[in-house]
Design brief:
Structural class: alpha/beta
Strand order of the largest sheet: 2-1-3-4
Number of helices: 5
Shape: globular
Helix content: 40-55%
Distance between the termini: 36 Å
Largest sheet: 4 strands, parallel
Radius of gyration: 15 Å
């Protein structure tokens, strides 16, 4: 059984300056993913944080796009957020997609100095996804944006050796 959203996450959001976040979202399940993005946008606007969104075909392509951006872009963000929704079907495809995107994002976090926030819903059905975009399980897009802000702040403190 899933747990409700993290109610403490909205407390203690640090004020950060000169930050930039890149959202990488999928085309699949766009009605859900667009609402995840809208949740991020609300938090970033409330906290005066500029952002940009790039779109990839599916969840498996998210780590590739982030990796390429890290390696080639002159406009490096302070954090990345991966946004997608993978809904279980009748085949094992769900398991493979979830594994690949999870492991890809893990590797990005371990191999680069920018946080990559996991905002990919992995759910059994559309109803579970809806419950995670403002329903009884909170809003996972907003939670991803808040996590990005907190991780930018933490990463800056670590880089400056102030903690």
């Amino acid at each position: 059984m899933a747990t409700p959203g993290n109610s403490l996450l909205h407390k203690g959001i640090p004020v950060i300056k000169d930050a930039f976040v890149l959202l990488v979202k999928t085309e699949w399940n766009s009605s859900i993913v667009d609402e995840l993005e809208n949740g991020c946008i609300r938090i970033f606007k409330e906290n005066n944080i500029p952002f940009q969104t790039i779109i990839v075909p599916g969840a498996v392509e998210i780590p590739f796009a982030i990796q390429q951006h890290i390696q080639t872009s002159n406009n490096q963000p302070d954090a990345y957020i991966a946004l997608g929704t993978v809904i279980r079907g009748d085949t094992p495809h769900f398991d493979y997609v979830c594994k690949y995107v999870t492991e890809g994002i893990l590797q990005l976090n371990l191999n680069h100095n920018k946080p990559v926030i996991f905002g990919v819903l992995t759910v059994e059905n559309n109803q579970q996804a809806i419950e995670r975009i403002g329903g009884k399980h909170g809003h996972k897009g907003e939670e991803a944006a808040i996590t990005a802000i907190k991780m930018i702040d933490l990463n800056r403190k670590i880089q400056q050796q102030t903690i």
